[in-house]
Amino acid sequence: MLNYLKVILIFCLVTTIAFSQKYDSLNLKSKYIPKIVTISDSSILFNSKKHLAENDTLQQAKLNIGGYVSTYFSYYDDDTEQNGFVQFPTMAARNKQFGLNMALIDVQYVSKNIRSNLGIHFGDIPQSVWSKQYNVIQEANAGVKLIKHLWLDAGFFRSHIGVESSQPRENITSSMTLVNFYEPYFLAGMKLTYEVNSKLSVQVNSFNSLNSFADNNKNKFVGTSIVYQPTSNLSLTYNFITGTETPDSITIKQQRYYNNFYLTYTSAKFLMAAEANYGLQTHSLKSDLTKNASLYSGLIVLKYQALKKFALYGREEFFSDYNQILTGTTSIGKSVYGTTAGFEYKPFAKVSLSIEGRLLQSENLIFVQGNKVTNYRNELIFCIDVWF
User: Fold this and answer.
1) What is the largest CA-CA distance in the chain?
2) Over pLDDT 70: what percentage of the chain?
3) CA-to-CA distance for 242 and 282, rounded, in angstroms?
4) Do 126 and 99 touch, CB atoms closer than 8 A?
5) Which of 378, 386, 295 is nearest to 72 (CA)?
6) Which residues contact 9 (CB under 8 A, 6 or more apart)?
7) Can you tell me whether residue 179 is helix, strand or coil?
8) Which domains does the chain have, with CATH numbers?
9) pTM
10) What is the pLDDT of residues 16-44, one digit of tens each?
11) d(CA 226, CA 145)
């Protein structure tokens, strides 16, 4: 399957370039022939993340082509491993090793009435947390404008839930909080997005499942998303999703309701993001399975641009899932707290070097250090990101 995807991708690129060059040589221009450009600096976190429709005034189609490589070295004093990865793996998933977070080839086609995205990725992130069935596909979706400001998109998507992204370059930190570790990374389904005005967009969506491109039962997750950007510096996002992961063979369904809210703020010197979550699932209370159980979590992260190329950052996180709705067989107790601190150096616009330390503390003894079991883990991560 991987070879087929490579052939298809290369064929599409070569064909598009050939046609574009042919039209240019004849001095002909068409709004349907894409202008080929490299993808601009990526920062979803501080760019009204993921929802706003394309500009209806776009006159010529564009084919954006990008590449991205994220590498790391990490140290964890927790010896717990599964399939070669640390506990709660996402970024910097291998202990005491040099590793590859991600190598990504990204292609985006945008015109006035249609759009599509294709992302092919390799590395530890897709190996540790991505779909096993479609491991190399980060996203693959297509959209059409139904009427002015109203878009319908379908296919495989990166998740819109949570302020942190599965691409390290789009985050302030080089690690991911437990808050976002247990939120979905990818979704398969359909989105209907309406841009009310330049400050507000509303979306309704439906997906097969959470963190599974293929459905595991006959039920679908449905939800809504609202993005409000009152100023160029401030953005507020609310996401709601509900559905059940219970197999069809089980009569009693555990319906999940998940609320996700985050805001981002930017200024000349500061970047700030905050997230709060509340979830409820029916028939899930440990002490009485006839009753509902809840979970809640949050984070706040701040970055200070001390110099033009040098920045400091810090993050606090909190996660509570006593009834193990999301954590499954891992019993963290009532809560886990985390503190992260680090600095970033950007010698060039699309090159980032960062070093950060993190302390995770749980109520239960879930970490292993040599011959002892403890409730805390220390982390150290060095990361280099380059993209175009």
Assistant:
1) 75
2) 85
3) 11
4) no
5) 386
6) 105, 107, 118, 120
7) helix
8) 31-387 (2.40.160.10)
9) 0.86
10) 444 444 444 444 445 556 665 555 444 44
11) 19
